[in-house]
Specification:
The complex is a heterodimer of chains A (325) and B (331). Helices cover 34% and strands 27% of the residues of chain A. Chain A has helices at residues 46-53, 76-82, 98-103, 118-130, 146-159, 176-193, 204-210, 227-232, 235-239, 270-283, 312-322; strands spanning 4-15, 18-26, 29-30, 35-39, 61-66, 69-70, 83-86, 164-168, 196-200, 213-218, 221-225, 245-248, 253-256, 262-268, 285-287, 294-297, 302-304, 307-309. In chain A, strand 17 and strand 18 (307-309) form a beta hairpin. In chain A, helix 4 (118-130) packs antiparallel against helix 5. Chain A is elongated. Chain B contains 15 helices and no strands. The chains are: A alpha/beta (325), B mainly alpha (331).
Chain lengths: 325, 331
């Protein structure tokens, strides 16, 4: 039984009384205990979809059903008990500790005065533990690194104790270790806390590794599935179709389409071969079975005819003169 | 941390009480503290001192407390709503509206019936109508605007329009009328008599109560509008109540005392600096007490020279350096 479901949902926006539809006929499901990554090129409507699903924005046609209730009929305070958000907006509050920030997550549960009871305390501390910020509990949020701040905001969403958490580009502005860390954390949280976690991201390789499901949003619609299935059925190449790069199904990355006008042949060790291919591709060489110029890969060097090169740079410099189109 | 805050709060309350009593004691005639208590005890003869105390200094001190508290709390509301440290209670154009009302009464009085102009209430009613009108416009606009920053700009624009109309009126007025208007803009705590107090007190109290009821939602606003909505806070509703509370607090005070600068913008920063927090549960009462204290100090200072200085100049002389200090400290 999915916790969130859409029926023929069209998303978009109103401007000057005119409706601009970004995506239509979306029928998607979000299940508990699942990490779902929403991927797509800029302008495909990722943020619009997140905003519509979280009820921050109205749908154009169709409905979003959360916990078997239509989101349009839910009051703001009811919604706050079902969906928590981590947004791209900057949170900068003076004199506020990590604990204070996470405590905001308890707002939907507290009374008019916002006083905290024991249950709130427990939730807050648990959330801080889940994101491993125990040692920063009393640090001011303005003194945290970007990665720690993002984790604190995730803790705030956890303290809100909702079955669904939605995150808009949680790994943007973070360095690689922190991006991996956040993705791993979210993956673990989805499985450990049995929450449905939906996030939008541009980190294709990370999403492919961490996501239980991928929502692939292109200009021609939304494809859902387990990452590997989407790789096999060519969805990635369709969605990100372009002349200048292609989705490399062998490693889950984008590879650039270089114009290859010259031919060489290469023989030798596997690992060095991979990197040699890359360098050759960049320089515009197509590697073929047999060509007038043959590169032999030795243990520490490259050999062409009777010449030996110790670096790729030297090799490419030589090829530049030796190979003609 | 909590006990430290409690002690700070207690000290602050005591300071406010001491300043309140000092404000009663000092002035052109010094009235000893013992006499203050006998007068309040009720067993006293009607003397010159008791007259001064009961009908002049006491309402003036209460007005100082109300004005300081109201303007500081209103300033805090605006700074939180707009997430702008330099927002003040007048930023929505409330005081410009009030001054337009007063300008019409003092300078365009030729077109109004004489009895209206000469009554003491005239200026107050004009100020209230002026402030309320601008406020209604801003509230009306607030329902159509998603973004609070746009609301801020609209407020400033309404204020500018009102200010221009005042300038036009000044251009065509005689010096006496202009002087009367300028005197009003200097601000005065002593113009609030017991009769006026019957109106000012409930208006200020209502505004303060509204502000205190909003404290949890104000905290939520600190996160930004979308995060606040994610926590179940309705931005439009909250904004509406914040604007109304600010209107009651700033509009009410301005109508009775004239504009008093800088208290509203400076005090919330002092409160944040003293208690090292952004929580409105603490900031609201602390701003209230600090604001009351500051205006009591200003009032005491304004009595020192032989000729009483206008309160607006004193509060500016105090407030401006504080603003500079804040900016320098923020780096």
């Amino acid at each position: 039984m999915p916790i969130l479901k859409t029926h023929n949902l069209s998303i978009g926006y109103l401007r000057r009384k005119q409706v601009y539809v970004v995506q239509k006929d979306l029928n998607i499901e979000l299940k508990a205990g699942e990490l779902v990554c929403l991927i797509g090129p800029n302008g495909a409507g990722k943020s619009t979809l997140l905003r519509t699903l979280s009820g921050l924005q109205k749908s154009i046609v169709g409905s979003v059903v959360v916990d078997s209730l239509s989101i349009d009929k839910l009051s703001l305070s009811k919604k706050a008990l079902l969906i928590s958000l981590v947004l791209t907006e900057k949170v900068e509050i003076d004199n506020t500790t990590v604990y204070d920030l996470v405590a905001f997550g308890r707002h939907p549960y507290s009374n008019l005065w916002g006083s905290k009871n024991d249950e709130d305390e427990i939730s807050i501390n648990e959330a801080i533990q889940l994101v491993h910020l125990e040692n920063k509990r009393d640090s001011l949020i303005n003194e945290l690194s970007d990665g720690e701040k993002q984790r604190a905001l995730i803790a705030k969403a956890l303290a809100q104790d909702t079955p669904i958490i939605m995150l808009d580009e949680p790994t943007a502005h973070l360095d690689l270790p922190n991006r991996v860390e956040i993705m791993l954390l979210l993956h673990r949280l989805a499985h450990k806390t049995d929450k449905a976690i939906l996030l939008s991201t541009h980190e294709l390789d990370l999403a492919l590794q961490a996501a239980d499901k991928i929502w692939l949003m292109g200009n021609d619609g939304l494809k859902c599935g387990v990452p590997e299935d989407l790789v096999f059925n060519g969805s990635f190449n369709e969605t990100f179709e372009s002349k200048s790069y292609f989705f490399n199904t062998s490693n889950g990355n984008f590879s650039m389409n270089y114009p290859m006008t010259k031919q060489v042949s290469v023989k030798g060790d596997k690992l060095r071969m991979y990197w040699t291919f890359r360098a050759l591709a960049r320089a515009g060489y197509e590697v073929v079975e047999s060509a007038p110029v043959e590169i032999r890969i030795a243990e520490m060097s490259w050999k062409v005819a009777d010449k030996e090169f110790l670096t790729v740079e030297e090799l490419l410099k030589y090829l530049d003169g030796a190979v003609t189109q | 941390m909590k006990s430290r805050n409690a002690i700070f709060f207690l000290v602050l309350s005591l300071i406010t009480i001491v300043l309140f009593l000092s404000d009663l004691i000092f002035g052109s005639i010094k009235i000893p503290l013992s006499e203050v208590f006998t007068v309040f005890g009720g067993t006293h003869d009607r003397t010159l001192n008791s007259e001064i105390l009961l009908n002049f200094r006491l309402p003036k001190a209460i007005t100082a407390v109300l004005a300081g508290a109201s303007l500081s709390v209103a300033g805090l509301l605006m700074q939180t709503l707009f997430r702008n440290p330099l927002a003040d209670p007048y930023i929505l154009g409330v005081s410009s509206g009030a001054s337009l009302g007063v300008a019409l009464i003092t300078m365009a009085s030729g077109i109004l019936p004489v009895m209206l102009v000469n009554s003491g209430w005239a200026m107050i009613i004009a100020a209230v109508i002026g402030a309320a009108l601008i406020l209604l416009l801003v509230v009306g606009v607030s329902f159509h605007i998603r973004n609070s920053v746009s609301l801020l700009i609209v407020g400033i624009m309404f204020g500018t329009i009102a200010g221009s109309v005042v300038s036009v009126l000044q251009n065509f007025s005689n010096p006496d009328a202009i002087k009367l208007f300028v005197m009003w803009t200097f601000g005065s705590l002593s113009s609030v008599t017991w009769t006026y107090m019957q109106v000012l007190l409930p208006v200020s109290f209502l505004g303060l109560i509204m502000a205190f009821l909003l404290q949890k939602k104000l905290d939520g606003l600190l996160l930004g509008e979308n995060y606040a909505r994610g926590l179940g806070i309705s931005i439009v509703k909250t904004r509406f109540f914040v604007v109304i509370a600010t209107g009651l607090l700033a509009g009410g005070i301005t109508a009775f005392t004239g504009p008093i600068a800088f208290v509203g913008v400076a005090i919330p920063h002092i409160a944040r600096g003293l208690f090292k927090t952004s929580s409105h549960k603490i900031l609201l009462p602390v701003s209230l007490l600090c604001g009351a204290s500051l205006l009591l100090i200003c009032d005491i200072i304004s009595q020192i020279p032989a000729y009483t200085l206008p309160i607006n100049t004193i509060s500016s002389l105090f407030g401006a350096p504080i603003i500079v200090w804040i900016i320098l400290k923020r780096k």
